[in-house]
Amino acid sequence: MSARVPVTPIDAGRITAYDHETDVLIVGYGCAGAAAALEADAAGAAVILLERQSGAGGSSALSGGEMYLGGGTPIQRACGSTDTPEAMEAFLLAALGPDADREKVGLYSRSGVEHYHWLAGHGVPFKPSLWGSPTWVPPTDDGLMWMGENAHPFDTIAAPAPRGHRVTSDGFGGKVLMAVLSEAIAGTGVAVHTDTAALRLVVEDGRVVGLVARHFDATVTYRARRGVVLTTGGFADNAELVAQHAPQLVGLGVNSDGGDDGRGIVMAQAAGAAVRHMSAAQVGISLVPGMMVRGMIVDKLGRRFVNEDVDPGLVGQAALYKHDLEVWVILDEQGYEEVPVEERWGVRPHHVAETLAELEQEIGMPEGALRTTVGEYNRFAERGEDPYFHKAARWLRPLRPPFAAIDVRRGMAPPEYGDGGTARGGAEVFTLGGLRTTVDGHVLDLDGTPIPGLFAAGRATSGLHAWGYISGTSLGDGTFFGRRAGTAAAG
């Protein structure tokens, strides 16, 4: 988005005729927009779905495809797991906080099974098998994953259950999710307008009634008789907004399709919308969780700072916000060899040494830093204990020479990217903050009052999250609250 492109709403009185009219106008064809369109259509509304690119997908199509669902889904039961909405809610409030949206988290948790059946009913595939170790994306097609629910301190807060429902796919599952939802939309009356970028909202007596857009070189006007739904994504691709709201993300790689420019957010702000948690972000740290959990992650002074078997999204946030990504994964030869080759994503140690003293020197850590940390770790690991961070006994054993260190700031890329490239700055990020909305997608103004005719869902909004992240909560949040926004707009 260019700062020179106006975003101030246009008064409807200035538009003499509209190029298109519909009941519900949805802006953005990622998972949230697709879910909104399907539900608005099911409610009997005429729907137009706008997409600035030439086809569906957005950032959703590039994701790993994990969907955070629970409360006792068929996949959980088939894998022998018992779960309750109450346990799911308690975990999410602890992991997504502080200041996670309690109303949204509660509703989402209570609706986990229903939302699973909605997805499966539209053809989204999930395989009833469990992948049991920490990873970003399993190298198999297993359909259920742990997302740190069984890691300290979360295992003391709620009964653990695996809730990462992974869309069945060869590689990342986001492309399959969007292909299935797109096929479902093709079977409805939803009109899809591609290569059409939103510019400004149209308002009439305080109500949002339409949109001005750009289709190639032509200006196009839309009237929405019932509502406009913004599902335009976050703002991680907008350097100006990132510097303004989330400066710690400046210079880092972005996990998106390149179109997360925040246009929908600022258009709504120009119409009086409030925003929340604009500094919050998901930090996809450049490490292999399977390596980290078999060793440790330390800061520039050689100190551990997190339980290594929590969800890697939480590790990434701790590494960036508390240590500016100056962190290293330390492990030994046995730990490295135990990670399956297909799960290593091509990552090799950057430093290898026979002694910890030599490794400290190679990295540039203070003398004795790693020797102290690894010595304490080994002393308790001999007994299967970790009194410092309470890592699960499954991953505890003394580290023996030779030792290795991986510099997270050097980056990496999953095989899915196909180019062997690396992330910039040791992490790829996307924003979590956005428009303040109700559970039904109504966009709220600064007084907490719904702006008539304006709805939003997905990463354009401040959804379940505050300053915490669990993998799968973006696709889950986007599809679930996208559905509710579509239904509310149709009403």
UniProtKB/TrEMBL annotation:
<keyword id="KW-0285">Flavoprotein</keyword>
<dbReference type="InterPro" id="IPR003953">
    <property type="entry name" value="FAD-dep_OxRdtase_2_FAD-bd"/>
</dbReference>
<keyword id="KW-0274">FAD</keyword>
<dbReference type="Pfam" id="PF00890">
    <property type="entry name" value="FAD_binding_2"/>
</dbReference>
<protein>
    <submittedName>
        <fullName>FAD-dependent oxidoreductase</fullName>
    </submittedName>
</protein>
<dbReference type="InterPro" id="IPR050315">
    <property type="entry name" value="FAD-oxidoreductase_2"/>
</dbReference>
<dbReference type="InterPro" id="IPR036188">
    <property type="entry name" value="FAD/NAD-bd_sf"/>
</dbReference>
<dbReference type="InterPro" id="IPR027477">
    <property type="entry name" value="Succ_DH/fumarate_Rdtase_cat_sf"/>
</dbReference>
<keyword id="KW-0560">Oxidoreductase</keyword>
<feature type="domain" description="FAD-dependent oxidoreductase 2 FAD-binding">
    <location>
        <begin position="23"/>
        <end position="475"/>
    </location>
</feature>
